[in-house]
Amino acid sequence: MDKRRVVITGVGAITPLGMSVDAFWANLVAGKSGIGPMTLCDPTGYPCRIAGEVIDFNPADYIPNREARRMARFSQLAVAAGLRAVEEANFKIDKENPYRVGVILGNGNGGFPTLEENCRILAEKGGMRMSPFFFPMVLPNMAAANVSHYLGAKGYNSTATTACAASNQAIGEALRLIQYGEADVAFAGGTEAGISQLGLSGFAVMRALSTNNEAPERASRPFDADRDGFVPSEGSVVLVLEALEHAIARGAEIRVELAGFGCTADAGHLVQPEETGSSAAQAMGLALKDAGVDPDEVDYINAHGTSTPLNDAIETLAIKRLFGDKAYQIPISSTKSMIGHSLGASGSLEAAACIQTITSGKIHPTINYDTPDPECDLDYVPNVFRQKDVGVVLSNAFGFGGQNACLVFRKFEG
């Protein structure tokens, strides 16, 4: 069957750089860092004591207090982003369409801080003192469940938990859902709020985190020769995806077209990217093929760009593998240079950046790029934003387990 075209009509963003997509984007273009001292848990004794936190978030602004207390923070962030997204899209679910509206969200950890808190209660006070809402708070699917509840979406509902590729996976699967007629609208994106001693410990013992605690705003430095690990972060972005004909019929303002999705697995090392970059390159190529886009048509790449030595070098290699000499002509930037790595939510925050890139004609910089790395020798838009008419954007997300998920966004033309 012919695939339906899918467009994006709303973006809700709750991020370390702002509580709206406009604030988020203004700070990205300005090269502002959202990374500072860690406050959501006590990092004393850990090598990394900095994070990208959503410091202005108050769940009571979106959710009644009693209900908010029964949600883990990752669900609270997702509900807030979802409410903002439907408001921007001017879309309401009514009794005629709830089963034609789906929800697919990505996250990597579920309610890690709540899990840690209740494990302490179990050890110190006994299991019968744990919260009766423990499971409804910590399970990874609860963000999607809560978004569907608050927005009234009764259609297809799912959760992608493919580590740091989860949001791109969720958005890509929502694309398929609409393309093949299973839904007319989908709320898709990701959420993460895993800043806790449990999460901090796990990454610290792997030596995956930056230790540049004295200069938090300079700690995340993707593709720079002095990068020393990623900075943990949190946030949520929810997109309103619609079949083109559905959006036109209701007179919606169309932001961009979501044109392609590609997904592969490394089938190799569980926490290191495949060393030749071939699986990542294949995912990028599949996304472009799905979108009907030639590699020469790509105007910008939003990189996974984690600021870890291995990831950035291999992502660079993968881009060269797919694009050849063209790779040197494509502007590339890493949103994580300013907000850190929000794990399963990262693809959704980067999707918001991709959409704004197309609609604004600006490419945000990769900040803290000071010392070139011979293995990372492409155009990373260092330190200052660039004005450019952008028609096609490729967005990369790669996760533990060898999960690779890539999206293609395109300027909408009727």
TrEMBL record:
The keyword Nucleotide-binding does not apply. InterPro entries: 3-oxoacyl-ACP_synth-2 (IPR017568), Beta-ketoacyl_synthase (IPR000794), Ketoacyl_synth_AS (IPR018201), Ketoacyl_synth_C (IPR014031), Ketoacyl_synth_N (IPR014030), PKS_Beta-ketoAc_synthase_dom (IPR020841), Thiolase-like (IPR016039). One of its GO terms (cellular component) is cytosol. GO terms for molecular function: 3-oxoacyl-[acyl-carrier-protein] synthase activity. Coiled coil: none annotated. Residues 3-411 form the Ketosynthase family 3 (KS3) domain. The active site is at C164 (for beta-ketoacyl synthase activity). One of its GO terms (biological process) is fatty acid biosynthetic process. The keyword Lipid metabolism applies. Keywords: Acyltransferase, Fatty acid biosynthesis, Fatty acid metabolism, Lipid biosynthesis, Lipid metabolism, Transferase. Pfam families: ketoacyl-synt, Ketoacyl-synt_C. Belongs to the thiolase-like superfamily. Beta-ketoacyl-ACP synthases family. This is 3-oxoacyl-[acyl-carrier-protein] synthase. It comes from Geodia barretti.
